[in-house]
Amino acid sequence: MEPIWIVLIVVGVLAVLAVFWAIATYNGLVSKRNETKNSWSQIDVQLKRRYDLIPNLVETAKGYMKHERETLEAVIQARQTCVDFKNAGAIGDLMKAEGALTQSLGRLFAVSENYPDLKADQSMLKVQEELTSTENKIGFARQAYNDAVMRLNNGIEQFPASIIAGATGFKQAEFFEVEVPEEREAVKVSF
Fold first, then answer.
1. Could you tell me the CA-to-CA distances from 3 to 8, 12, 16, 104, 149 in Å, in that order?
2. Can you tell me the mean pLDDT for 6-21?
3. For 26-60, what is the HEC assignment?
């Protein structure tokens, strides 16, 4: 066989391998992007559950907390702000609004300590238990989302996949982070 044919065969094999590598890299990035979207959807499911529980909590508390209207309204407003940002797809703004909602719920639970009948109310206890469970699920979903974001961002940044990512328009995802230092502190709730 002539040397020119050997060179052409080697170049052809390398070109085919490069195409397969590019396809595999692209498909891997698509999988990571979809995993990130799915992880966000899991947070979304838990947030919806949380938003649905809050009106029940407020309604249960209203009858007992006639003098705490401001606290109840703060919870309702914070919930609505979160729903608006969620519906608008504004992840960064939603993260900030979620912090405000968590703080207003903490204040509601703290104020409710002054109402012994409310603390003993079975409806209130049930909603509080459901909210606690939902908060745990939100925490786990946020952790899974951040893990997926890390995998996606690593895939986009690491060489040589970064070449494919840049050429095909992949963008880094945003981590779900606590932005208000007070949110890092545990909320003290006792019924």
1. 9, 14, 20, 77, 49
2. 89
3. HHHHHHHHHHHHHHHHHHHHHHHHHHHHHHHHHHH
Answer yes or no: is pLDDT of 189 > 60.
no
Q: What fold is seen in the domain 46-154?
A: de novo design (two linked rop proteins) (1.20.1440)
C-alpha atoms less than 13 angstroms from C-alpha of 3 in its C-beta half-sphere: 0
Phi (first) and psi of residue 160, to 5 degrees: -95, 0
Distances (CA, A) of 180 to 77, 107, 111: 18, 16, 22
- What the block records as the tokens of 63 is 């009858």
Locus of tokens 């729903």 = 83
Domain residue limits, the chain? 46-154
Q: Using an 8 Å Cβ cutoff, are 171 and 141 in contact?
A: no
Cα–Cα distances (Å) from 87 to 2, 75, 83, 101, in that order, read: 66, 18, 6, 16
Burial per residue of 4-43, b for 16 or more beta-carbon CB atoms within 10 angstroms, e otherwise: eeeeeeeeeeeeeeeeeebeebbeebeebbebbeebbebb
pLDDT of residue 190: 44
For 160, which DSSP code? T
